[in-house]
Design goal:
The two termini are 36 Å apart. The strands form 5 sheets. A 7-stranded mixed sheet has the order 3-4-5-6-13-12-16. Among the domains are: 12-23 and 296-447 and 739-752 and 761-818, no CATH class; 39-102 and 107-145 and 187-292, no CATH class. It is of the alpha/beta class. 59% of the residues are buried. The chain is globular, with a radius of gyration of 26 Å. It is built from 34 helices and 16 strands.
Length: 818
């Protein structure tokens, strides 16, 4: 039955054969998966009510203590449940896939959209009338009493125009925490929370309270002790519930529930002794971190490395078999998909598909520079293949000596067509980290965090991705329009000359450089104001306790408690910029086939004038394009990108000089689905793109402009300053499943990837293995494609939950053959 049902996900023999290779979910895990996927996501007010209680009761206390008492109130009182099918317990909300509300960040969009959540084009949530009333009842307390309100008044007048027009894409960051890290799960498993508790108690006892800085530390340590006790209580509640349910269960389930109770009485407070305890301990923390804060990209880190000792010991002792380990892993991945987050409608434009970006990293190298692949690495691949879900976000760390059989298995998973795994390249990332000040040992221990961002798990502070999105094509239009945004008519930058008055490409390039530098400075001002607000308003206590050096320094993460602290600015529309500059330089300034006035008028009319379409076709078809290994186009975007890399590095973040190594900014191209949202507000561009249509995503070429095959795409991407784009170089590619039908096809792809990583020093790549025909049919007949998953950007999502605009953008991507 399970085999028959699971093979219905696939529309072609290639994917069905790959699924047979990995096997199928057990009957109960299939049933659990089906139940979770069929469950409609509702908005849940329970957390918001409990937070309101705690904030009202403790409003005079320092924020670190207020946050600790808040989490305590939630974990002691929230609804808990144990599904019949599961071996792992712990829930974020009152029901699977329901989205809790975080009023301390903002309640404004929730109140404004109460009657709109079910009417969205994508990212739909359901809400009962009772929940609406509960939210309205607590709303007065939170008015002007939340992160968004306080961050708003922190913003200097000089940057208000960018916020009013949405230029920097800050909607989501004003509404939520932005985590992008993995806590120290290895230390959690080895020491238990009791180990962190002992460190906090000792640090508190050692304080010299005559020193002014000791007062804040005193309260921080108290907040850790309160939080750890709250987590212990939460786990114990599940032990009690499991024993209660065991009384009425059948014999087999009764023993399993008693085992669950025994595990929950130990972890996460005490060190894990078995694989079952290790998984439960990690899940409790992974879940509670996302009860504490509504950030995203809270990742599992190097899962196969810190979990393998427990797998190895259990296999040797006969406590587990490979099949039982895989079943528990599939249980964990299904639990992962139960975590949810509701975003404002505006935020969904850049984070389509309700992603949480919870990344699992496998493979790579050890701290001793040896291949890190172990038997658990293979079992993770197998379990992810069986569950076929958009979460967790699976990343394979590639290096030149990566186990060949493991690479083969990774490609088999990729053939299943749900966008995983992504590949990150040790050969470029590790040296880049070392260059930025990360120790060699830690650099070899990095993991993917979120989409393509990378960090050292358990040692990294907020945020390894930046808050603002720099819209490169829009910056170009502002440059051409003498510093004025053509869409809003507002001045965004100083006057450096209008495009119609320019007589050379050099003039345009110089104006671009100045405009980009100016707007980069403005983005830093915005980020600093919001980072300061995050630090003051919403310290994350559990997250800080489980990150190295926070206890030692007596500082939470947002104050600079971590070992390292780097953030990156993100750029959107890289390919549009390249193609636009190439068209202007060649057709206007070199060949003089078009005048500056003709091009400008065509842009202003969205190519609707008498010669509009003719000019548009010239710009598209008669100028070099990024993605074709054409140095003309590739060199132009490299020159412009270098300006941003140089400028962003000038500005330290708010943790600079306060303890962490780094405290600096660097660039990154992980634009998630912001290319669709930011495209909506960007007028026609000189690459022939129409106003309002999506921009190019990540560092991928514009749709169907890459005409010379995948190798040329990889060569173009490799010309970017990838060693400086430490925040991640996101490259999406799409191939038809039939392209990988034969074993020689798979080996051809592996050879291509090895060339990209070993010779061209590529940073990252991921594939959508799905045909255009399947996507079009899914758009027309969603009921036939419930399980269709696509790679949106640095993450995967169910195709049917995406807005039509995002679906169209994915359908339009170039489909390559090998």
């Amino acid at each position: 039955m399970t085999k028959q049902l699971l093979t219905q996900k696939y529309t072609n023999d290639v994917q069905q054969n790959s699924q047979k290779h990995f096997g199928y979910l057990t009957e109960r895990m299939y049933s659990y998966r089906d139940k979770v996927l069929d469950k409609k996501p509702f908005i849940d007010a329970e957390r918001a009510i409990l937070v309101t209680e705690a904030y009202q009761k403790h409003q005079e206390k320092p924020n670190v203590l207020k946050r600790a008492y808040m989490l305590q109130n939630i974990l002691e009182k929230m609804t808990i449940y144990i599904d019949d099918e599961t071996m792992i317990v712990g829930n974020q909300a009152s029901s699977d896939k329901d989205a809790p509300i975080f009023p301390e960040y903002t309640l404004e969009f929730v109140v404004n959209e109460l009657d709109l959540f079910e009417k969205r084009d994508g990212d739909v949530f359901y809400i009962t009338e009772e929940t609406k009333e509960q939210i309205r009842n607590i709303a007065p307390f939170w008015e002007n009493n939340n992160l968004r309100a306080r961050a708003g008044v922190m913003l200097p007048e000089e940057v208000q125009v960018y916020m009013e027009t949405g230029f920097f894409g800050m909607e989501g960051k004003m509404n939520s925490g932005d985590a992008h890290l993995a806590v120290n799960y290895q230390k959690l498993l080895e020491e238990g929370l009791i180990g962190f508790e002992k460190k906090a108690r000792k640090a508190k006892a050692d304080l010299d309270l005559t020193k002014p800085e000791s007062i804040d530390k005193y309260h921080f340590y108290d907040s850790i002790l309160i939080t750890i006790e709250a987590v212990k209580t939460y786990a114990e509640r599940f032990a009690i519930l499991a024993k209660k349910q065991a009384k009425t269960a059948n014999a087999k389930r009764r023993q399993e529930l008693l085992d669950i109770a025994s595990i929950c009485e130990r972890v996460p407070y005490y060190p894990a002794k078995t694989f079952a305890e290790a998984v439960q301990s990690v899940w409790f923390i992974q879940c509670i971190l996302q009860i504490e804060s509504n950030g995203h990209s809270l990742s599992y880190g190097r899962f196969d490395q810190y979990m393998y000792p427990y797998v190895k010991a259990d296999l040797e002792a006969g406590r587990e078999t490979e099949d039982s380990i895989v079943e528990r892993l599939t249980n964990l991945w299904i639990k992962t998909i139960t975590i949810n987050k509701v975003r404002s409608q505006a935020h969904t434009f850049s984070s389509a598909g309700s992603p949480l970006y919870q990344n699992v990293t496998i493979g790579g190298q050890t701290r001793h520079k040896e291949d890190a692949v172990n038997p658990l690495s293979f079992l993770v691949l197998k379990s992810v293949a069986q569950t076929h879900l958009p979460q967790p976000n699976l990343t394979v760390r590639y290096h030149a000596n990566l186990d060949k059989s493991f690479m083969n298995e990774a490609i088999e998973v990729m053939k299943l067509g749900f966008g995983m795994p992504a590949f990150n390249n040790d050969e470029i990332i590790i040296p880049s980290f070392i260059k930025k000040g990360v120790s060699e040992e830690d650099a070899y221990d990095y993991s993917a965090i979120g989409c393509v961002e990378t960090a050292v798990p358990g040692k990294w502070g907020y945020r390894c991705t930046g808050m603002s999105y720099i819209n490169f094509p829009k910056v170009l239009l502002i440059t051409m329009n003498n510093g004025i945004d053509p869409a809003s008519g507002k001045r965004f930058a100083p006057s450096y000359g209008h495009f119609t008055q320019m007589t050379s490409y050099k003039e345009l390039k110089e104006a671009w450089d100045k405009t980009l530098r100016y707007l980069t400075r403005m983005s830093v001002i915005v980020e600093n104001a919001i980072d300061i607000s995050l630090e003051r308003e919403v310290p994350d206590i559990l997250c800080s306790a489980l990150t190295d050096n926070c206890i030692g320094r007596g500082k939470h993460l947002k104050e600079g408690g971590a070992v390292y602290d780097y953030i990156s600015g993100l750029q959107v529309g890289i390919a549009n910029l390249s193609d636009s500059l190439a068209a202007l330089k060649k057709l206007v300034f070199e060949e003089k086939r078009l005048t500056t006035l003709e091009v400008w008028q065509a842009l202003q009319s969205d190519y609707a004038g008498p010669r509009g379409e003719e000019i548009r076709q010239m710009l598209i078809n008669e100028a070099p394009k990024y993605g074709n290994d054409d140095d003309y186009a590739d060199s132009l975007v490299r020159e412009c990108y270098d300006v941003y890399v140089e400028e962003i590095a000038k500005y330290p973040n708010t943790r600079y000089g306060r303890g962490p190594i780094g405290g600096i900014r660097y660039s990154g191209t992980s634009s998630i689905s912001a290319n669709v949202g930011q495209g909506r507000g960007t007028l026609a561009t000189p690459d022939g793109r129409h106003a309002g249509t999506p921009l190019a995503e990540g560092c991928s070429p514009s749709h169907n402009m890459d005409k010379k095959g995948p190798t040329s795409v990889l060569k173009s991407v490799s010309k970017l300053p990838t060693d400086e784009i430490v925040g991640g170089v996101l490259l999406n590619q799409k191939v038809n499943p039939q392209t990988l039908a034969k074993e020689e096809d798979k080996q051809k792809l592996i050879a291509l990837l090895r060339t990209f990583f070993n010779r061209l020093h590529g940073y990252h790549i991921q594939y959508n293995v799905v045909s255009r025909e399947t996507l079009i049919d899914a758009q027309k007949h969603p009921e036939k494609h419930r399980d269709l998953i696509v790679r949106v950007a640095g993450y995967s999502a169910f195709f049917n939950v995406l807005s039509k605009a995002t679906q169209d953008d994915i359908i339009a991507r170039t489909e390559h053959a090998l």
